[in-house]
Queue: 2 jobs
Job 1
Amino acid sequence: MVLETGIQYLPGVGPKRAQLLQSELGVATVGDLIRLYPFRYIDRSSIVRIADVHPDLAQVQVRATVLKVRLYAKNGAELPPDQLKYNMVNRLSALVADDSGEMEMVFFKGVKWMHSRLVPGSTFIFFGKPSVFNNRLNMVHPEVDAPDSGTTGVLTGVYPSTEKLKNAGITGKVMLKLVGTALQEILPVLQETLPDYVLREKGLVPLTYALRQIHFPTDQDALAKASYRLKFEELFLLQLSLLKQKYVRSHNTVGLNMPAVGEAFNACYHALPYELTGAQKRVIREIREDMRSGHQMNRLLQGDVGSGKTMVAVLSALIAVGNGYQACLMAPTEVLANQHFANVSKYLKPTGVRVALLTGSTGVKDRREIHAGLQDGSIGVLIGTHALIEDTVQFKALGLAIVDEQHRFGVDQRARLWNKGWQGVPPHVLVMTATPIPRTLAMTLYGDLDVSVIDEMPPGRKPVTTLCVGEEKRHAMHNFIRDEIAKGRQAFIVYPLIFESEKLDYKNLELGYEEIVRTFPLPDYKVAIVHGQQTSQEKAFNMDAFVAGRAHILVSTTVIEVGVDVPNASVMVIESAERFGLSQLHQLRGRVGRGAERSYCILMHGTKVSKESRKRLDLLCATENGFELAEEDMKMRGPGDLEGTQQSGLPISLNIASLAKDGLILSDARGYAQHILELDPTLEKPGNAVLAAELRKDKYVSKDYSQIS
Ligand code: ADP
Ligand code: MG
């Protein structure tokens, strides 16, 4: 028997069970079965006194003597104890006792067999989940073992299961038996997957030991060692496969070669009103190296809100321009595209590079002009929304595509960008995201991309004081805004807009707006409003009023979430803050603290806030560091749910490791994977044959994430 042997050939399985194991648990081969680990363990080393049994407890075992057995019919009538027609019996109830108390054991199935076993006066170990029925402590269908049978080990593994499996008789006990048989067959011929020196350096237990212990642990310590080894192995192989793909991609995809820095870059650089931060400089160097490597750049740029990603984008675009290519910058919303256009135009003034804006509301005439300018190459940088990936938009020589806030774009949209390259060569791609993705997740989700991180804020960024405020202090909040406006500041007030309750949300927004207008009346105060149901002209008009300082307060839905820069704003009020996700709240907060001496983020919340939401709000008050928040968020919710990572499905599913908890093991494992690939990038050396074979398995092939951006 080998790992690839079909599960139906394992003694005790057969075709029918095999089919269920496959459809219910994804177990198709013997190898799959031994890699299906218990998700928890029952400690059967201790016996609980009946007096201490409580319905809140998970599974327990008691050692008790049978006092009396009763049989009941469907209608509840008790049947004579010498009942021989078992088909009339609906339920068997055994009253059992130890020296501390009594309880009931109930069986609906296998009654005849139990009736013959549970002879009054005999003692058994009963193992099951306690509950209460008719005010009486009981266990339904406990496992019944002779007191001297000696359980399967101190810790018993519990495997994932379903109703269908149980109905087919594949109980926990049966699973243990099947796994036991499989191990017996496989372990003697099993090959170690990890290189010797890794095992030695990391002090990892061998695979055979790990597999035996993960299924049948002898004690907690052995289980911990097994689990550590298997987590390491899982993360190591995952990283090895991702990094290998990255290597193959970067060596097989030709990239546009951009050796020069160019005059435009230098002109812009020297005219900058500020010094770049160390992190910005480092990231620009990384990008420059990519663009002149001869390979296509596929880089993710992470940086917290306000870390200065736009400047990096501008300078990167100018490298492309300086080498005779064009660049485009795609933003997720029109408001944001407008703002980028305004900023970038300003930065590009000293360079003489022509920049254009293309969005859904660009008029026909302008559009025609832009199309022409892109084709003859006179436009160096194009900024826009997804309008710029339409097929009618043709570049003379697109050399760099920058995507801001990547998670808002679909995969096919990004693929269309790739196809806009020059003479069939895809442009370099730089994806910018302000959603801080924890390192461990980034390594996995984007394991085959290069990741740059701006981990330093520009000087002058002021701390933001964050407060949680209940409804009873709404009046005080209004007064606070009034004081700030008196100091010459401006305020954002943001309402949630959740798709499912859109109608109600607009109602709230409207009511909120009316209240604000009443509280802050003309002519002393001006209030602007921006939301998704406005035309783009209305949106732009209101936005401009706030950006230019003509309006004191901006009431809006989350359209301002990304990017908008109003340094004079010092207050961010978030209504129904409990309804927002952590990273969204953090993004919103990042809109203030950009100019004013002190800024405030006020999280308004209702009276009924769930424990989890409360935790989120408290966390936000406690830290301003986006990466810290993201780590905490992931711990709270698990990585699959993490906001901003639309690819909630990980590249492969993990059997035992957790991205949230095993970050250290992950980076360790990645280091080893990197080292191995440095010496043997295609895993062709004989010493790496086992690894190469592992990576040929289904779960690692057929996934090409290289075009993720
Ligand atoms: P984000 O990363 O959120 O896109 P931006 O690029 O919008 O951040 O930058 C936020 C603000 O910081 C802008 O007003 C920008 O002009 C300013 N800024 C960027 N880099 C620096 C720097 N090195 N020094 C000072 N201010 C900077
Ligand atoms: Mg930005």
Job 2
Amino acid sequence: MTAVLALGHYSEGDHAALTKDLGATIVTSNADLAAMAKDERDQVKALAFMGHAPLGGDEMDLFPNLGVIANYGVGYDAIDVAAADARGIKVTNTPDVLNDDVADLAVAMLFAQGREMIQASEWVTSGNWGEKGPYRLNRKISGGTAGIVGLGRIGRAIADRLAAFKMDIHYTSRSEKDTPGWTYHADPVSLASAVDYLVVALVGGSETENTVSKEVLAALGDRGIVINISRGSTIDEAALLDALENRTIAGAGLDVFLNEPRIDPRFLALDNVVLQPHQGSATVETRQMMGQLQRDNVSAHLAGKALLTPVN
Ligand code: 8YV
């Protein structure tokens, strides 16, 4: 056993680097932590964490010498940071390196759903194009009105892309930003009533739970398309499913859900959605940078140096 324990389903490259560069022991589930022998747990100084299963004080207490939890991802809502604070444990994340990929996927889903690309592709592959004629007309996206829920680093990257499509940008955020020409809304209902596309780029966690509520979805209306690349928890999922089934909104592009990866089967019966398996940051290039940043934070801690991207 070594000073570094890694938890998660790592790519081959990350797996190799964790073991080679850091001599890490790798386990895949929270249950594996409690199964470790006490003398092994006592040696752990750093935990490289990947995944979305909750990591709380009980797990932290298994490792009396744990000094850092280095999260693989920008969102660290799975980690109880208050519990880490109380134990003097630092938490780090992997911000910025994934902004482009997550923003790209948000825009791709907006276009895929808006232009009905999945349905239109099925029109081709089913032979309908040859037998029945052209696919039905869909909708113009460029020049539309988009609302970004949460104008942080990723929200800004999405807004910049949509602005290039001549879209009118509205947003809601903790505070008004210096974004000339973009319209700030103090609350998400006001935002939703002003736009056709609602793109959710919030942090996860209890403070943003169900920000996109039944009322927000009603305000968005039947031309509305919801895009979510944040966390499933930011949307009232039952209300979203009702709205999609009853077509009180037009559609959705979703990369995140409650209870991933076993998502609500109601999603699978819908024909007005584009569904992705939480893959916003999942490119070879970006995952390499995320893995490197995670390992650099672990190395910094072991060397007694300042952490690169601390969150507490
Ligand atoms: C995950 C993410 O970290 O960065 C985030 O917040 O949700 C993703 O990049 C990744 O899927 C590994 O769990």
